[in-house]
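Narrative summary of target 7.
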Amino acid sequence: MIRNIKNNVDWVGKIDWELREFHGADYSVNRGSSQNAYLIREEKTVLVDTVWLPHAEEFVSNLKQIIDLNSIDAIVINHGEIDHSGALPLLMKEIPDTPIYCTANAVKSLVGQYHQPDWNFKTVKTGDSLDLGNGKQLIFVEMRMLHWPDSMAAYMTGDNILFSNDAFGQHYAVEELFNDKADQCQLWDEAMKYYANILNPFSPLVKKKIEEVVSLNLPIDIIATSHGVIWRDNPLQIVEKYAQWAEDYQEDQITIVYDTMWDSTRMLAHRLAAYLNQLAPKTRVKLYNLSNSDKNDVMTEVFRSKAIAVGSPTVGNSILSSVGGWLHFLKELKFKKKRAAVFGSYGWSGEGNKELRELLTQAGFAVVEPEVRVNWKPREEDLSQAEQIAQALLAD
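Modeled conformation, tokenized:
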């Protein structure tokens, strides 16, 4: 289905209500998503991005109902990842000589994935442009590592549209398409989740790129993302949020994450939550058992938090695999300026806390000295030690 964005620019993407996971199974999708592609029809007809492979046939079929494919003068691929380029091979079978505008790194990505080195690639870099006719241009801006080395954005003069690629998006299905039509609570939850789980490792680059784009003093009426809503109502509000989130973001929140075998570590986690609430009633406290919680939603809460506490029993001279895998993911996301504490129970050898401390330090957290390490099932005097952790996490 075609949706008008502004003047001669239409959305021709796919709203994917059924999508439930992304990046393999590494990112949970709770409210569907979209793959946003755009068709520009000025003197030249330009397609900006495509959709994911499972929707390729539908995408090309829909395009054929809108235009003669041979009238497409150029294809812009802002990012070679398969959710953006998946329909490209099928489309190129129909129009094999059509020039593809992308970065040099995107050529590597597209050739590496589709093994078509003879496609008509036109490599671009920041400041290069594509004349659309009618006094309008697409100006390209490299967005390296936001979130792949091949990423770029394209700015359309005249209509003041920024095709922002993965920046400013969400995995969020909105049938009405635009930010002012979306459920605002859900929209901002999904926008933060997207940033926390995908873009946070690149926060220093996000900050520099925002400064670069702002310095260009370009009027931006619409931010046309690759996923989720199109920002037309005060579009710079999401840019302002990214500027905040890129500055080692935190709220007055502490998140407790743990897993347990026979409830001992669970008891410690719940007592710690109670002490935190007692000592700092205004601080938001959240608690998650990693075995029955969505890891990406938990990571979003870590992003919000000024401190975390992580608990695991000792097993196999180490920690539970659920906690170990989650900590590996935590390290990938490169959070900064956050505190952490460790706690856990053991039956025989008791190395769990040491392992937790080492892994959290490697992940960039300042691990406080107090900890709770309980042999077998905790008694009241063991549980009361959690107050020391609470005090350390809350200390100025």
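The longest strand covers residues 339-346.
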